[in-house]
């Protein structure tokens, strides 16, 4: 956003005042702040999770280790898996992740959450009417499919391992990773196959 | 605390609104606040639990009308002042100064080493009282301070689904009363136990709950 | 509905602020709104339950920041429009007209007789299922519509303290689904049953609950 | 408040628009609105409740009938007692009235409720920490006194019959009624005797 001090909202001014005071007091440097931001802009995001998913799809042993303990993401050079729990969606079992109390989210694999994940609507509704929520996301599950909602109330973080879509047998791990969406790893969507010509993945 | 932040099962918040091609941050100040908060947190000036409590203690109407990062801002200011890192007067004066001199550069002092991490006298975490498959009841507690036991699960029966090591106890840690780690469990609750007959028969909610939140179910 | 209006046991609303020598109304519009609402209600254009539901269905942040009579106003407008007595366009146009012509007198048409009260096909209320002293449990229900069973009592054990005749059932009446009168009970809940051990041993809460909100306690 | 159309807030304008439309549509007349307001300004208020309390203090038979059924207020010419329940405060039992869901209040004896009764603070706290609430009102009950909180969730309305203060044996019924405060009939205060020189009754 273009910087216009005349238009600077009060929240921006308060943040600037805090940064300025904390720099003076030696708690941080402007460079450290810049660096932290660009680190997330650069390489966190849902790409890491997509790599994990693709690996689990092509390597059954890795998938077993991953479902056993999220720390297996270290095999892909990813850190922070000690508190990660990966849950697997199947044709009969559907998992969905929420944080009703605040906004807990698996940053280590998915980066920062989208605003809807932090919205009051999602936080309030996912635990009491998960099928209605999934319907709003365009996902209508069969009545027979069990729905498991994970409310992240501690430092455990949940990532959904979505179902591998049909028609992807020939794809490479890198090509598979490109199919995996953030929403599928939260559990509000399925992964569409490469022939799918619907809505662009979010 | 029984606050508006404890939203699980609430009605009235409308449909879930999604933003197409959402940016990582919606304004520069959000990105800077996010980074500053993380840096200060990681240095141990206050805890993630205090960060959360700082949001929960917002005046309820303010909580509901504030944006996500406005809630972070409210908590960050509260915790910095609460911990004696800043004073309210200092902050107000700096805001006023920056309002009048928007282009002033911040004086970059030499950065001292961060303070030694706080030492909390710590006993070893107790052994888990429950095993996978055990029937438990989430306690009916209503603490005025921070807690991670949502209201919708209190008094409800569940099953130990998984053990997840020992974790710092947020109910004390948020208030500077020690880390007091406890065994943490993933507890499965049938949706009908939580919400009654209107919930589907094949739905369950899982919560990550500390040992002292739970009691053995009377059989 | 599980709304912010269901405030029993919530924390975070601060001290109780009292006004010395409080007037009956704080502004002329409050008095007129109050009277208009009462008159329209008594003529049977909508019910007291619909009036309450109209408040509960306000957007939660709006509910919390609105004043008491602003909530009445929101509900009154909603119900008048919902019942087809006014249209939204009509109301907006009249507001705009009055903004431009603040001193215009309202045209006083001859007043027709109020409409005949709505006839609800009505079966006689069922006989009470419970007697004074009976142990009951308030059902764990989470209706999306209007209800007068507060969240804090759901799933909790109580005792029938008094019978109080039959009363219109608000859960249906608020939505135009009939009066369906049911036996009403005054039910006593021990505070420790509701709030756990932090409540005092010599405290109890009494709620006025309809027959269908209750189940016999399993002994 | 002096009428200044330039300063008229939006809520006042909306109310005026509603009144104007409803008059046109024949649902009400401006006179009926005026009359309803002055009726409440004139003779509702807590004075009716105070008369009921004084009568109960001087006439034990009336008190028995009143506690049995609030309809006994008809003996004082008061209407609306069919759904009134009167609860008696004693040295050992203290009753307190609230409406957590909205603002139910015994209009037939106390008139319209004060703003604090309708406040979020009172509504949320009275049921979970009644002693702390009473303390804020300056009333510290002995630990041994039982506290009964009445949450008015239906059309039953509660009025508290406060304890008759000591030193009032010589007073007439009219003099007694003058001592009775609204707050005492909600249950957040006791009635002070005539020698009491503290805070003026609210």
Mean pLDDT of chain A: 92
Output the radius of gyration of chain B: 21 Å
- The tally of helices of chain A reads 10
Rg calc of chain A:
19 Å
How far is the N terminus from the C terminus of chain A? 22 Å
Taken in chain order, the helices and strands of chain A follow as HHHHEEHHHHEEHH
Low-pLDDT sequence parts of chain A: 1-5
Distance between the termini of chain B: 30 Å
Which strands sit side by side, in order, in the main sheet of chain A? 1-4
Described by its quaternary structure, the protein is: heterotetramer
Strand content range of chain B: 15-25%
Let me know the average pLDDT of chain B: 93
Structure, described:
The complex is a heterotetramer, with two copies of chain A (202 residues) and two copies of chain B (219 residues). Chain A is globular and about 55 Å long. In chain A, the strands form two sheets. Chain A has a two-stranded parallel ribbon with strand order 1-4. Chain A is of the alpha/beta class and 202 residues long. Chain A has helices at 10-24, 30-43, 47-58, 60-68, 107-110, 115-118, 120-125, 130-136, 173-179, 182-186, and strands at 84-88, 93-98, 146-151, 157-161. Chain B is of the alpha+beta class. The longest helix of chain B is centred in the first third of the chain and has 15 residues, at 28-42. Strand 4 of chain C pairs parallel with strand 3 of chain D, so a sheet runs across the interface.
Q: How would you describe this structure in keywords?
A:
heterotetramer; A: 202 residues; alpha/beta; two-stranded parallel ribbon; globular; disordered N terminus; B: 219 residues; alpha+beta; 5 strands
Question: What is the structure about, briefly put?
Answer:
The complex is a heterotetramer, with two copies of chain A (202 residues) and two copies of chain B (219 residues). Chain A has 202 residues and is of the alpha/beta class.
């Amino acid at each position: 956003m273009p910087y216009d001090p005349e238009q600077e909202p009060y929240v921006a001014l308060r943040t600037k005042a805090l940064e300025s005071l904390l720099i003076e007091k030696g708690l941080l440097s402007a460079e450290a702040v810049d660096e932290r931001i660009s680190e997330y802009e650069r390489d966190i995001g849902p790409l890491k999770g997509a790599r994990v998913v693709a690996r689990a799809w092509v390597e059954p042993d890795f998938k077993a280790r991953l479902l056993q303990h999220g720390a297996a993401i270290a095999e892909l050079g990813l850190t922070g898996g000690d508190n990660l729990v990966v849950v697997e969606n199947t044709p009969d079992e559907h998992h969905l992740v929420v944080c009703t109390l605040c906004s807990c989210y698996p940053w280590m694999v998915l980066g920062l959450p989208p605003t809807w994940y932090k919205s009051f609507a999602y936080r309030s509704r996912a635990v009491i009417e998960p099928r209605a929520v999934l319907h709003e996301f365009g996902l209508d599950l069969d009545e027979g499919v069990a729905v498991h909602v994970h409310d992240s109330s501690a430092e455990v973080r949940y990532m959904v391992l979505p179902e591998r879509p049909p028609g992807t047998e020939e794809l490479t791990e890198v090509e598979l990773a490109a199919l995996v969406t953030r929403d599928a790893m939260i559990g509000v969507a399925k992964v569409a196959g490469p022939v799918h010509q619907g809505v662009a993945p979010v | 605390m029984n606050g508006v932040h404890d939203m699980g099962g609430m009605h009235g918040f409308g449909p879930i609104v999604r933003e197409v091609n959402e940016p990582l941050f919606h304004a520069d100040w959000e990105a800077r606040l996010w980074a500053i908060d993380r840096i200060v947190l990681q240095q141990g000036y206050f805890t993630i639990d205090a960060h959360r409590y700082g949001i929960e203690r917002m005046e309820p109407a303010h909580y509901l009308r504030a944006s996500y990062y406005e809630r972070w801002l409210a908590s960050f200011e509260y915790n910095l002042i609460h911990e004696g890192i800043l004073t309210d007067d200092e902050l107000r004066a700096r805001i006023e100064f920056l309002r009048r001199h928007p282009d002033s550069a911040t004086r970059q002092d030499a950065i001292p080493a961060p303070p030694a991490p706080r030492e909390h006298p710590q006993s070893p975490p107790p052994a888990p009282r429950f095993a996978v498959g055990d029937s438990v009841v989430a306690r009916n507690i209503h603490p005025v301070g921070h807690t991670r036991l949502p209201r919708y699960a209190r008094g409800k029966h569940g099953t130990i689904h998984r053990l997840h090591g020992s974790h710092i106890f947020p109910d004390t840690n948020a208030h500077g009363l020690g880390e007091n780690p406890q065994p943490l469990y993933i507890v499965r609750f049938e949706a009908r136990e939580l919400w009654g007959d209107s919930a589907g028969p094949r739905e369950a909610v899982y919560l990550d709950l500390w040992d002292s939140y739970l009691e053995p179910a009377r059989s």
